[in-house]
Each structure stands twice: as C-alpha cells, then as structure tokens.
Design brief:
Number of helices: 12
CATH architecture of the largest domain: 2-Layer Sandwich
Radius of gyration: 22 Å
Order of helices and strands: EEEEEEHEEEHEHEHEEEHHHHHEEHEHEH
CATH superfamily of the largest domain: ATPase, nucleotide binding domain
Structural class: alpha+beta
Strand content: 15-25%
Largest sheet: 6 strands, mixed
CATH class of the largest domain: Alpha Beta
Length: 415
C-alpha cells in the first residue's frame, strides 16, 4: 500500500512520500514542494490551486479566490456557502476540491497511486471546544475518503515535526517542539533519541501536547487592523453623535477566511449607506471601492507581504495606489509588535501550560525546535525562547518539517 504524509496547512500545504526508504516532499507546483493553500474559481473551467490561483486573482481574472481554507474547520463556516459564479458551494466542497488536486499531484510526482494518508492536525482545531475539534477531524477524514484515500489516520503536527528533528540528533534529548503555523500554534514536549527512533510505540516518549488557535493569519489580521484599516474608515465616526463605523466589516476584510462574506449584494448596499452617513466619507469610500471591486484579497496579500518584509528588513510601505493614487501605509517592526504582541504573549502562556502538563521545569528542556512560518517573526521567536532560556535553539525547515515527519509516520503505519 503506497502511503503519504499530508500537511494541509492554513497558509501552505506539503505532501511527502518515501523514496528509496527516505521521506521526501513531492513537487506540487512546478519544482516547488510547498503550495499555497489557495483555490480560485474562474468563470470557465475547473478551479486552479496554489500560486496559479493567486496569480489568476492578481491578474484580474473574474472569479472567486479563497485562502486559509483550513481555518473554517470545526466552526459554523464549514457548512456555509459562498457564491462561485452562478452557483453556491459549501466550504466543505471547496476544501475537497483542493485536497483532491493535491492528492492527484502527489500521485503524479510519486508515479503511483497513493492509497493511505497520515493527515497532520493541530493539537486543537478550536480552542476550548472538544465537539468542534472532533467535527473538524471527522470532516477532514471524510474529505480524504471522498478524494480517494482508502486508509486515513492523523498525527499531531508538532509530533510530526519532532520525528523530523529526531533524525538530526546523536544522543537523548528532551525537546520542546514549537510549530507556529498559519492558523494555530502547537507544542509538544517529547523525549527523543537515536535508539527511540526505531520504536513503533512512542506514547511514553510524549510528555505533553498543547496548542492555541493563534497563527500567521491572526498576525495578518491585527497588523491590517492596526496599519491599513484606519485608511478605510476603521474606528472613524459617523455624522450622528456617538456612533462609529461598525467594526465587523473591517474585521471580515482583515480575516482571510471571511473576506468573501463582504461580496454579498446586501453588504455593498449597507456600506454605501454608511458612506453617506460617515464623518469621513473619503475613507469609507475606499472601503466601498475595495468591496465593490472584490479586492479584499489584494489587500490581504499586500499586508501578508508587508509582514514578511518587516520580519526580514524591519520596515516597508504597503502600496495601496490600486485603491487611490499615492495611497500607502507605513509599516515597521515597532508597529508590528505593537499590534500583535498580545498574540506572542498567548503563545508564551501556552508553552508555560505545556511545561506544567509535562511535569518538568524549563531547565529540563535540552532543545527547542522551531518550525512554521511565524517563527520568522522576531518577537514570536523571542517569546518562545524566553520560556526555555537554557535550551539550545534549533531551526527546522520552516514549511517542510511537519510534512517530512508525517511521511515518516506514514511509512511506519502503512509500510
């Protein structure tokens, strides 16, 4: 039975297969082993995924772009519908279309059918909601079956990352695995060693698993609300004394999975009425044009790119001249930290809870293994490292460690 490890992420996806006995990530888009978790439904032909989906949207093709698909799992949105051309599709069906294409590309890269999958999953799809968590896993399991996998099982994403890290060590370690992804932050405290690596049963080596629904898309959302949305009228007044622009529109526009809600005809009518009632109609007019032209994802793409640029260089400008000539929002590290520091604090707090669950002090941790795109944010990284200050810091493959670990687990489970 041919098996694979599938890391269907909020921002990016990887799929791994064993080649010559070693786990390898398959090329899913050209030569790239990572593919954005994005799908675009145009007016003609089937949906396209990944970078091609984003490019179709940016190039101005008429249609509907959807990203952060994983974030709807476990919540009410999964059964909601969104307008796609002349039909309405459930988000569940959209996820199935995406995962189905990923499986087909994985099979093409592997040169054989893929019958079994170990699906990655966060420790908690939904914070404080065991029923929602169960529904999320059940939904993914059903979708995997529908797209052709005959055997489906799951592994926590930080545990998968630990299996990738374990290949690098030459002595026993107690490791904190920190996987800060697009939608969730997940942690495991695991005992690892070359000798333990070959064991089939590893339950006794896992001291703790925990997680929190905080990830890269949350940093995007708060960064957008802080530096961009005020230019579109966020927190501005209406003409009637004591009334403000409703915040919900801006929160939806800043949230990847909620942007398409704004493209309903009633929403645009309500926004035009608010523009007439606004004390700053020019700013609210920008909001109206963004929604009218269905450019919400353009805005989100610009904010995400700015976040990455700030992480790499410290400062950038978010060009919004597509909305209004000369319009731009300044973005720097100070602003990023100011608007998102609470998220880093929540990540650190959950690591503290994970240490308590494991029954060990911070001084017992030999190494902290960092993976996931949001570990590139310095204040996030600093918050993690400060929880275990004596531990050696190890950089994992930012987008590939979980997929490699899931592939190792798939080989163990399915041969």
């Amino acid at each position: 039975m041919a098996a694979c490890g599938l890391d269907f992420g909020t921002s990016n996806t990887t799929l791994g297969v064993a080649a010559d006995g070693e786990p390898r990530l398959a090329a899913l888009e050209g030569d790239a082993v990572t593919i954005p978790s994005a799908i675009f439904y145009g007016r003609a032909g089937g949906p396209v995924i990944g970078r091609a989906a984003i490019e179709a949207y940016v190039d101005g093709h008429h249609g509907r772009l959807m990203r952060a698909l994983k974030s709807v799992l476990g919540g009410a949105l999964i059964d909601e519908t969104t307008q796609v051309g002349r039909q309405r599709l459930k988000f569940r069906d959209v996820i199935a279309a995406y995962v189905g294409q990923i499986r087909a590309r994985g099979e093409a890269a592997a040169g054989r059918p893929l019958d079994a999958v170990v699906h990655g999953r966060p420790v908690h799809f939904v914070d404080g909601d065991p029923d929602g968590d169960r529904r999320a896993e059940d939904t993914l399991r059903a979708i995997a079956g529908e797209v052709g996998f005959r055997e489906v099982s799951f592994q926590f994403e930080p545990i998968a990352a630990s299996l990738d890290y374990e290949r690098q060590i030459d002595r026993e370690e107690l490791a904190l695995i920190a996987d800060i992804g697009g939608g969730t932050s997940d942690f495991s405290i695991v005992r690892l060693s070359p000798e333990r690596r070959g064991r089939d049963e590893r339950a006794d080596d896992i001291l703790a698993n925990d997680g929190v629904r905080v990830g890269g898309t949350d940093f995007d959302r708060l960064f957008s609300l802080g530096v961009v949305m005020p230019l579109l009228g966020y927190r501005s007044a209406l003409k009637r004394p004591g009334l403000m622009m409703p915040a919900g529109y801006f929160h939806d526009l800043a949230t990847w999975s909620a942007i398409n809600r704004l493209y309903e005809p009633k929403v645009l009518r309500d926004l035009r009425e608010l523009e007439r009632d606004a004390a700053d109609p020019a700013a609210v007019g920008r909001l109206v044009r963004t929604v009218e032209d269905e450019r919400g994802h353009t805005l989100a793409i610009e904010v995400e790119a700015a976040k990455i640029a700030v992480a790499d260089t410290g400062a950038t400008a978010i060009a919004l001249d597509w909305l209004e000539p000369g319009l731009a929002a300044a973005a720097d590290h100070r602003a990023l930290v100011a608007h998102t520091e609470t998220l880093a604090d929540r990540i650190a707090a959950r690591i503290g809870a994970c240490l308590i669950e494991a029954g060990v002090g911070a001084e017992a941790i030999d190494a902290v293994f960092l993976t996931g795109g949001s570990t590139r944010l310095s204040h996030v990284r600093n918050a993690i490292v400060a929880c275990v200050p004596d531990a050696r810091v190890v950089e994992g493959d930012t987008f590939g460690s979980v997929g490699i670990g899931l592939t190792i687990e798939a080989r163990r489970r399915y041969g």
